[in-house]
Write a structure and sequence with these properties.
Aminopeptidase; alpha+beta; 2 domains; two-stranded antiparallel ribbon; 14-stranded mixed beta sheet; 385 residues
Amino acid sequence: MTIADVPSRTVSDLVITTVETPKDRQAFLRFPETLYAGDPNFVCPLRIERRDFFDPKKNPFFDNSEVRLFLARKNGRVVGRVTAHVYFSHNRVHNEKTGFFGFFDCENDYAVAKALWDAAGAWLKERGMERMRGPANFTTNHEIGFVIDEFAAPPVVMMTYNPPYYLAFAEKYGMAKAMNFFAYLITDEIPFDPRSARLIERIRRRSHATIRALDMSRFDEEVENVKRVYNSAWLPNWGFVPMNDAEFRHMAKELKQIVDPRIVLFAEVDGKAVGFSLSLPDINQALVHLHGRLFPFGLVKLLWLLKVKKVCTRARVMVMGILPEYQKRGIDTLLHHETYMRGTAAGYHEGEMSWILESNTQMNAVAHNLGARLYRTYRMYEIAV
């Protein structure tokens, strides 16, 4: 008998069940709305988006993984949730037997957290995993890590949010740090150093690189350029797994709905795309007002917030990549400089550069040199199972 065959585990009045029915799934997806009710920093994701994200027929991640969803209940009331998943590509690329937990949320009760992690870890162990790492929602191409500092501000688009007690629970459970990830904040109040203009011009001449914005009229071709650079440039990074064609197309389709082409930039040498920088408007500045509901009037409100109120005054520099053979030529500096100049011209007063591995000394140095301030840290934990 496996854990998948056991409908529940009981600790006192606490019951852990696997998600099996549409009603269970809705309870799983809606639980954060209850948990964070009244928290002004919580940004509720759109219900329709979360529903599609967890639909194996719509999200190609499920084609390359095995996933189990768990709910914690006390006296019939949902008090926590977690996922456990095996991402086959990760273990193949990194030669590991690592399983992941994700979408972890629970009330301020360690017994709930322990029971959820026990269930997730047991399920992963039955599938031959040697360790459990997380949170990962679901991969490093999605949302990862617990916030470990700066809890008094909302998250930017596609970044996690959690209360401080999650950290105490993870450490009490015996989890250890797997990796920290840094978020830097830069504002349009930072004065432009005239010396930078001379440096930028020298880099342009030396690298023979030109910078251009995303061309939405040939979006599919642009996506192919990003995929080619991204999967090559990021391969050496900790925890990174190249996305296959289906995963990349799905991600591009989702981001197309919110992308601002003025701040998605390509670096070209002799007409060939050799690098890119993807920044997104912080759509969370609008979503925080919708409380997860797009219908019946949420769509109108969203358009009003974006087009009339223009609430998105912050952008997230989400990812940058340069082909290995073109690295160490200063092209990253060109992309960051152009993102800053074009972003401020487009009305973005703040930018979050996230996330950057704590072990990525080059990118951390670039952020510091730009005048950005390290203001938030995220952490993934792991434990043997």
